[in-house]
Amino acid sequence: MALAVGMRVLTRALLRPWARGLRVAPGRTGPAAGGGDGMRCFGSPRVLVEPDPAAGVAVVKMRNPPVNSLSLEFLTELLISLEKLENDKTFHGIILTSDCPGIFSAGLDLTEMCGRKPEHYVEYWKAVQETWLRFYLSNLVVIAAINGVSPAGGCLLSLTCDYRVLANNPKYTIGLNETLLGIVAPFWFKDTMVNTIGHRATERALQLGLLFPPAEALRVGVVDQVVPEDQVQSTARSVMAQWLAIPDHARQLTKTLMRKPTADRLLTERDADIQTFVRFICRDSVQKSLHAYLEKLKQKKG
Ligand SMILES: CC/C=C\C/C=C\C/C=C\C/C=C/C(=O)SCCNC(=O)CCNC(=O)[C@H](O)C(C)(C)COP(=O)(O)OP(=O)(O)OC[C@H]1O[C@@H](n2cnc3c(N)ncnc32)[C@H](O)[C@@H]1OP(=O)(O)O
After folding, report:
1. Is Transit peptide among this UniProt entry's keywords (predicted)?
2. Is 107 in the pocket of ligand 1 (CB under 6 A)?
3. Residue ranges in the chain modelled with pLDDT below 70
4. Residue 298: CB within 6 Å of ligand 1?
5. How far apart (Å, rounded) are the C-alpha atoms in residues 194 and 262?
């Protein structure tokens, strides 16, 4: 039932004008294309997929410049790529990384949550929910190669992965910093963090809106490994090999066992969660905070 609802959201998204023609954008043969067996890079304008069929792995590169903010279009393209890889028996694992230098993802797109109509907020929030559910419950091994800063929704996306490798650069902070924007991390953001670093550490991190630099992120457990920047991709590949050596069915069932209770909470409260989000985001005080935050980002330049 829940899956059917998810499929409807995805199907509706695919029917949108900007989503048409996104299914395959054939490109050059990928550098990771498994010794020239002819499998090409594919993807969409904002998501580049580099397949390595020999290894059963695809590198999914987010490229929504300037900051990989998770706009509605971008989320839809990510979902389409994920679905395509999940439906292709060649692939058992994905490495999720960024094509935008120094930025993994700036999180949810603030312009999707500012000055729009309630119907837009509903549509946007459904896509955010769907992305979390799909990545969190994916049967594939998903490893995040975090090669840039990763606040809020960017951090959440990495937390849906099975393993996180972070580049050792003090600028590459990671965390759920929503309170700094005057907003609140929804319960399923919070649950995902609790499942990763525990209750007390989450309580502190979320209330203070902490963005952890690499050493701190490793210490608290937000990431699993910190490596020199030029070793992020190779480390993600080695870790992937280790995970893929485990019998797939046993690993998948264990993942489901661990994650389903958390996902079920959102699945049963999905509509209520949308209403809560829309009510919250429509508040004058919240809109003011978000506008002020966006303005601050813009003024930073000048
Ligand atoms: C009771 C509770 C019930 C319900 C819950 C309700 C609400 C909660 C809902 C949602 C949770 C929210 C989750 C989020 O993810 S919110 C987004 C959080 N993200 C951030 O705080 C990051 C903001 N960005 C930055 O800090 C920097 O941009 C960054 C460090 C990523 C990069 O810095 P850099 O100097 O390289 O670039 P900038 O010049 O700052 O930015 C370039 C350009 O991009 C625009 N920008 C940046 N981030 C975003 C974004 N998240 N969304 C949209 N646009 C963004 C920025 O304004 C610049 O634009 P322009 O000036 O036009 O070039």
Report:
1. yes
2. yes
3. 1-38, 302
4. yes
5. 10
Q: Is residue 158 within 8 Å of residue 112, measured between CB atoms? A: no
pLDDT score at 33: 37
Rounded-to-integer distance, Cα 285 and Cα 158, Å: 29
C-beta of 195 in contact with ligand 1 (< 6 A):
no
Q: How many CA atoms lie within 13 A of 299 on its CB side?
A: 6
Q: Give the ipTM.
A: 0.98
**CATH superfamily name and code, 42-300:** 2-enoyl-CoA Hydratase; Chain A, domain 1 (3.90.226.10)
For ligand 1, atom 60: residue with the closest CA: 298
The catalytic residue positions are 108, 153, 177-178
Please state the domain extents for the chain. 42-300
pLDDT for residue 34: 38
